[in-house]
Design goal:
Length: 214
């Protein structure tokens, strides 16, 4: 099964993608996570991506596409994958559609996790992430058992660099201009499924599974 997660920054794409990956035993591929891992390791790629990410802008298509295509060509992607944060522009979507078609295959679903802008800013300010294992929490909605500490690996939780309110605002602007057109793109291909992302995490997941298994 090949699945794309769409939705504004902070809509819960990563949270839901992890649950989907676990249930269907397919890899969860987040371009944002790949960039953050590179920043942490201090690679050239990471340094280049950081310049854009810190401003809330998109990393250029050429770079992002190269990384994504490399990742989905790995053996563990043969049974499918859930893409989180890619594609984010029409050119990215076209490259992906073509690559998948070359393998005689297709994307099965594009899931739009729909959350209005007003809710987003609040969500981002409460997000806490584990820099070691990537687990994500929310101080009000999905708190860790012990404040500031990751349930999974015990590391100290951090606030993401791009979760400052000013940066969140530019990420939202970029989303509306460059990524929202993808909703139309996948709707025309008849694979768009929209879920209400303002519900509880488990209810959002149940709604997604219903679509995937309909
Ligand atoms: P990326 O890492 O993809 O960030 P994003 O799209 O801005 O999305 P987020 O990760 O912030 O949010 P999410 O939807 O995953 O929400 P989450 O599950 O964490 O990209 C970062 C940057 O990298 C971009 O700005 C860009 O510069 C670059 N980049 C990445 N991909 C690119 C591409 N393809 N092209 C170009 N550039 C690219 O949830 C958010 C919070 O809400 C958490 O605290 C969570 O616990 C909580 N939460 C989740 N679900 C619920 C719920 N149902 N109820 C209450 N709280 C919830
Ligand atoms: Mg994410």
């Amino acid at each position: 099964m090949k699945i794309i997660m769409l939705g504004a920054p902070g809509a819960g794409k990563g949270t839901q993608a992890k649950l989907i990956a676990e249930k269907y035993q397919i890899p969860h591929i987040s371009t944002g996570d790949i960039f953050r891992a590179n920043i942490k390791e201090g690679t050239d790629l990471g340094m280049e991506a950081k310049e854009y990410m810190d401003k809330g802008q998109l990393v250029p298509d050429e770079l992002t596409v190269r990384i994504l295509l490399d990742r989905v060509s790995k053996d563990d992607c043969k049974r499918g994958y859930v893409l989180d944060g890619f594609p984010r522009t029409i050119p990215q979507a076209e490259v992906l559609d073509n690559e998948v078609a070359k393998l005689g295959d297709k994307i099965d679903f594009a899931i739009d996790v729909d959350v209005p802008d007003e809710n987003i800013i609040r969500r981002m300010s409460g997000r806490r992430c584990c820099p070691k294992c990537g687990a994500t929490y929310h101080i009000e909605h999905i708190p860790p058992k012990k404040e500031g500490v990751c349930d999974v690996c015990g590391s100290e939780l951090i606030i993401r660099d791009d979760d400052k309110p000013e940066t969140v605002k530019s990420r939202l602007d970029v989303y509306h201009k460059q990524t929202q057109p993808l909703i139309d793109h996948y709707s025309k291909l008849n694979i768009l499924r929209t879920v209400d992302g303002t519900q509880d995490m488990q209810d959002v997941f149940d709604a997604i599974v219903k679509h995937l298994e309909a």
